[in-house]
Amino acid sequence: MVDRAAAKSILRLMTRDGRAIETSSLPQTDNRAAQDVETIFRMERVRLIAGLAKHVGDISLAEELAQDALVAALATWPQKGTPPNPGGWLMTTAKRRAVDLWRRRRMMARHEAALSHDIETGRASDHAAIEASIDDEIGDERLSLIFTACHPLLSRDQRTALTLKIIGGLTTEEIARAFLTQETTVAQRIVRAKKLLRDAGISFEVPVGAERDARLASVLEVIYLIFNEGYAASSGDDLIRPQLCQEAMRLGRILVGLAPEEPEAHGLLSLMELQASRFKARVAPDGSALTLETQNRRLWDRLLIQRGLDGLESVKRLDGEDGVHALQAALAAVHARAARFEDTDWRESANLYDRLIERVPSPVVALNRAVAHAMASGPEVGLMLLAEIEDEPSLAGYAPLYAAKGDFLMRLQRMAEAREAFDRAAGFSENAVERAFLLGRVAECGKALRAARSPES
């Protein structure tokens, strides 16, 4: 008999309008068979939706068709066995369902003719042929789905939610939990994003020329945004959310696999892998945050470091070393190559930031540049560079700005000013672990001040 929970877990991979699908009409099957179908479906899900979306021009409809193919597989495979080419079987079944829908609706005749051609010419049962025809173009189709999910027409929040949902396979509940957002909010973003793409008639194709460059930047931005939210959570009780980082790296690997000649794709993946290599060392056993200076570098993941460095070699081979993500990856590599904090090549880091700020003249890059120059040339230089950006409106209430200032002042033994800066940073931080670290720095400065005022000193 069917394990309803097992079947439900499969169908939760796909949702209609952000809601879990009803499972009351699922076919009855045993646990092992359901698990086999789930495994195969997880492997085929993205390319199935990608291929369908390109033909029907509607992500929501592509999801429905994929769902129907899944239900059909649950009903058929346990009795007849798993077909030799399950991807082709699922695609053929979904296309049959599309033809049935369009025939009933008396519309989209052109699509009907294109999709029904293979079926009506007797090739419907030849799953190997279907699979081969899919593989001829599926790389472009999956890439087109990524580019579509990250279309600049959508807001950043919509792009992020849709990418995690369609490409990453996360449920709305998982996305909401990761970003500390209401599930209904995430569901609404996904629904609106699909509607915007459908109503605008966005084609499911990989753009070319200048449009491709612009869209690639959007894709990379979304993936890195997902990674950053996991690497340094903006709010909540956890400093790191590994699931988001792992998902972003998985998306990065998909993009590199589909666009191997894009240096910035390699640069982003390299950057994420190098940063992720420090996960185990970033948080102390008591849950407090550890800086680069205090981390146990023996805990850094050497495999991820090597993969990140290999990615930089690919960037160099593709002549993309001045790319935004490539430069950031090179910055991460400066730390990865240093066996001890004292071995860090801060002058190289400062030089890389000088190059990066020419490409990305943003206040946040300027802040990080100030830190690198402070480490290379002294905290006085850092304070001078901070003074140039302190009045920047976009940095008002930005905790890292005041944390950096506090660090420079602390190194100069200007403890009263440092304490004030750290206190302001803690007041602006919305992350519990980060806030605790900053308040610890406030306490350190206070202790130093009291010691300086003590008669015994």
Beta content comes to under 5%
Q: Strand tally, please? A: 2
Q: Helicity, in percent?
A: over 70%
Q: Quick check: average pLDDT?
A: 81
InterPro entries: DUF6596, RNA_pol_sigma-70_dom, RNA_pol_sigma70_r2, RNA_pol_sigma70_r4_t2, RNA_pol_sigma_r2, RNA_pol_sigma_r3/r4-like, WH-like_DNA-bd_sf
Domain RNA polymerase sigma-70 region: 47-106
Domain RNA polymerase sigma factor 70 region 4 type: 147-197
GO molecular function, one term: sigma factor activity
Q: How would you sum up this structure, described in words?
A:
Pfam families: DUF6596, Sigma70_r2, Sigma70_r4_2. Residues 147-197 form the RNA polymerase sigma factor 70 region 4 type domain. It is a single chain. The protein is an all-alpha fold and 457 residues long. It has 3 domains: 1-136, no CATH class; 150-259, no CATH class; 260-344, no CATH class. The chain has 21 helices and 2 strands. It has helices at residues 4-11, 31-56, 59-80, 86-105, 109-123, 127-149, 156-167, 172-178, 183-199, 209-231, 242-258, 263-276, 279-282, 302-317, 324-336, 346-359, 363-377, 379-387, 399-411, 415-428, 432-453, and strands at 15-16, 19-20. The protein has a two-stranded antiparallel ribbon with strand order 1-2. Helix 4 (86-105) packs across helix 5 (109-123) and helix 10 packs antiparallel against helix 11 (242-258). The radius of gyration is 26 Å and the shape is elongated. It starts with a helix and ends with a helix. Mean pLDDT is 81; it is low at 1-29 and 123-139.
